């Protein structure tokens, strides 16, 4: 998938999240370990969200290896920002105009 299509999916994801009570903290946070697509806050819980879009079943592209990289990047993010909240890892799937949020696919 092209970077442009990926950003369009993330833009749809952000709109969906904001419409569902999530406050966007950061987008595309990079560390030497990997990237977190979207960091949000809702009900005093940080949500580290991996966005996948495209054909087929994009949820299956969130692999254990990807979760491991996200967990390392979360620790880097928390150390850098000094934010002190419970957190979870969520997957958000964008397929056309359909968006589905899978909460707690990985958690602290």
CATH architectural group: 3-Layer(aba) Sandwich
Strand content: 35-45%
Number of strands: 5
Gyration radius from CA atoms, angstroms? 13 Å
CATH overall fold name: Trna Endonuclease, Chain: A, domain 1
- H/E element order: HEEEHEE
Low-confidence stretches: none
What is the number of helical segments per DSSP (H or I, 4+ residues)?
2
**Span between termini:** 30 Å
How are the strands of the biggest sheet laid out side by side? 1-2-3-4-5
The description of the largest β-sheet is:
5 strands, mixed
State the helical fraction: 25-40%
- Shape by Cα distribution: globular
Counting helices, strands and paired strands, the structural category is alpha+beta
Compute the average pLDDT.
Answer: 91
CATH class: Alpha Beta
What number of domains? 1
């Amino acid at each position: 998938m092209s970077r442009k299509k990926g950003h369009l999916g993330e833009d749809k994801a952000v709109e969906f999240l904001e419409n569902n009570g999530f406050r966007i903290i950061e987008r595309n946070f990079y560390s030497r370990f990997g990237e977190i697509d979207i960091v949000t806050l809702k009900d005093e819980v940080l949500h580290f969200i991996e966005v996948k879009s495209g054909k087929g079943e994009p949820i299956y592209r969130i692999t254990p290896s990807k979760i491991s990289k996200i967990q390392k990047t979360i620790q880097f993010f928390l150390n850098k920002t000094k934010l002190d909240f419970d957190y979870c890892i969520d997957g958000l799937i964008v397929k056309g105009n359909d968006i589905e949020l899978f909460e707690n696919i990985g958690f602290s």
